[in-house]
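Inputs:
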Amino acid sequence: MDTSGLRLEHRYDVELVAVTKRYGGTVAVDGISLRIPRATYCCLLGPSGCGKTSTLRMIAGHEVVSEGDVLIHDTNVTDLPPVRRGTAMMFQSYALFPHLTCLDNVAFSLKARGVPKPERHRRARDYLARVHLQDYAERLPGQLSGGQQQRVALARALITEPRILLLDEPLSALDPFLRGQVREELKRLQRELGITFIHVTHSQDEAMALADMMVIMEAGRIRQAGPPREVFERPADAFVARFIGGHNILRDDTGMVAVRADRCRLGMAAGAPHIRGRVAAVEYQGSSVRVALAVDDGPALSVVMPDDRFFAGPVQPGEEAALSWSAQDAHAIPERA
Amino acid sequence: MIAIGARGRDPRERRPWTFYALAVLMGTFLLFLYGPMFVIYLLSFQGPNGGVTFPMVGFSTVWFEDIVKPGQMANIPVSFGRSILLASIVSLITVLVSVAAGLGFRRRFRGSGILFYLAVASLVMPSLLVGFGIGLGFQLFGWQPDLLSSALAAQLTWTLPFGLFAMFAVFNRFNRSYEEAATDLGANAWQRLRWVTLPILLPGILGVAMGAFTLSYDEYARTTLVAGNRNTLPLEIYALISSSTSPTLFAIGTLTTTVSFVVIGITLALVLRMQRRRALARTG
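Outputs:
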């Protein structure tokens, strides 16, 4: 707890050093190391069971670290309780206390610290106003919509003035329209507060849209960590390429390569590598069209092209087709991930 | 789709004959369940010259007045008071123990399975034998059986396992992330219990309290051998049945049932009010 006085500039907001989590005999998180620079929007991304939520919960202090260390602002917090880490967590189902009004929910942490009622209610009202819910102070969580509940949960977390905000699938309970809106709000908030957000999600769209740093996990290990653009343009392995989508895993004379589906073309071109197959499906997506290609004893491939190019020479499911790409778009990936 | 209003069913959607057969079965069951009780309620308003069977000879409340008049019924109001006192104590202890046990059993500990079965086994023990055993034990140690010692213990062997079962069901539906959120917001263990866990579980806890109260209030088999000199209401009524036959017995039955229903009604109203206030956190 170094909240006063001269503070040395820390290098990383969060640092994980060979962190492992075991539940009985199963390993949920397998010796991961990660450095999250200051004021970063970091997304932990991966399929369910990949260890992303366990990692988040270990940073929060809700899960005991089996091995390794967790550092926050250069301080080792591995054995500290959640309240002394300077983290705040927003739970997946929000976990708003159903018997307390929104005001009392937001004021809860101040009450636990013994702040007198008028003072804590005044501050809770400030935070409710920040999320535009000042008129809902006396309502119970059950009387609010999902989006409103999410904002109360956010206010309740932020009133603790956390150094790190941890979000466990914060958008999964919202409908798609609201999701986009809240996504923008989260990003704006993070930029305004200038603190690190760690956001667990299984949606690559969400991670791409939000993250400064994207951490892709699988089977308890980190497959790749970096800015979304770097991950998308240079996926570290076939798993990452498949998981973030929009890539074809192909083979040329150099070995295995990943090629973005929007860089692939239908038909053959002179001197360009290609693969033959059959059109399996055509998906109209508005500004683009996705053509799925089935290849004998190969993985499913797809070509994404602008709508005008597709309609200039449309294909039908069942037709024979070839997929070609240019060597400069091919990104080599290791043979066996 | 054709809108089928609240007014009725689509005539094309016919119910199968089994629906009517099962409805008759259910109706008969309800008649057997509540019929005898209604007969007793009705007969308790028998006229002053009427007997314990039909026909009703007029309509009066003299049998209710009989209960509070000094005379052979003198013990009824006193034993009613004892039963209420005992049931309150039983209910309180049951709630305290079963809430604590429910909290403890959430964490799997060594021997928790065996402990659970041991606690629950007394539900299947023959009730009369439990009372007999406790009475025997008291005699062995030379203790005097009494309402608030041996009778209390005998009733707890019945209400505690029940309370434990009910609390397990309550805790099963409890989402632990409420507690994690409280910890995350800096609450210590005591604050978390007082401000979050207990208030959220309160409807379930009230249910256990009510259940234990009514179980104790009409307990007979376990209590009869260990009540000592001070009879509870069910014991007093049983004694009366063998010594007198008048509609007063029915009046007592009507009154005690009313008490049970009032207790249940108040608890249900409280729980419903709480639940309505909270609505459902997931909706909306």
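Remarks. The mean pLDDT of chain A is 90. The CA atoms of residues 165 and 197 of chain A lie 5 Å apart.
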